[in-house]
Amino acid sequence: MTDYKFDPKILKNHFDNKIRELCKSCKRYGTKATCPPHIESVEYYRELLPRYSHGILFVEKFKSNSLTNWKELGERSSLKIHNQLTGVRDELFAHGKLSIVFGAGSCKLCKECAFPCRFPDKSIVPIEGTGLNVVDFVKEVADIDVSFPVSKYFYRVGVVLYD
């Protein structure tokens, strides 16, 4: 996994209500406590996230040779980056830093989500659920072209913001 440091102020250039609207096409829409429509508004995140002092984008690239391979890799990689992000959050907290983390895609921590979330200290909001255009953001910060539909490669991303 590669990490890229960035100034969170650039985030304000990447919010788009249309991105959040795409969440409605997800099979998990409305079923996760950490996803739309159960999280704060795009406007809330547009105001909050650029106020942090430091940002780190984590990106991991996976080779996919089939749709089955992509789904299998996706499940494993999602939990892997989830654990890495919460580990970074815990480490920052232990050093007295305020932090927030976001993953890509819905939280996969529990097989069945509960309302309210049973593990708010371990759960993660999907960065695209905030309305952030992840494709444009990753291109600006890491100069990586993320494309859909997934073909040869797919990427797992995570974002850590802290003061």
Chain-wise SSE layout:
Elements: E1 2-6, H1 17-22, H2 42-48, E2 54-63, H3 67-94, E3 99-103, E4 125-126, H4 134-142, E5 153-162
Parallel strand pairs: 3-4
Antiparallel strand pairs: 1-2, 2-5, 3-5
Number of helices: 4
Largest sheet data:
5 strands, mixed
Percentage of β-strand residues: 15-25%
Give the strand order of the largest sheet, numbering strands 1, 2, ... along the chain: 1-2-5-3-4
H-E order: EHHEHEEHE
* Mean pLDDT over the residues: 90
State the helicity in percent bands.
25-40%
Number of DSSP E strands:
5
Question: Ranges with pLDDT <50 over ≥5 residues?
Answer: none
Structural class of the secondary elements?
alpha+beta
Q: Give Rg in angstroms.
A: 15 Å
C-alpha geometry: globular
Distance between the termini: 23 Å
Number of domains: 1
Any overview of this molecule?
Strands 1-2-5-3-4 form a 5-stranded mixed beta sheet, with helices on both faces. With 163 residues, it is of the alpha+beta class. Helices cover 31% and strands 20% of the residues. The protein starts with a strand and ends with a strand. It has one domain. The protein has 4 helices and 5 strands; from the N terminus they run βααβαββαβ. The protein has helices spanning 17-22, 42-48, 67-94, 134-142, and strands at 2-6, 54-63, 99-103, 125-126, 153-162.
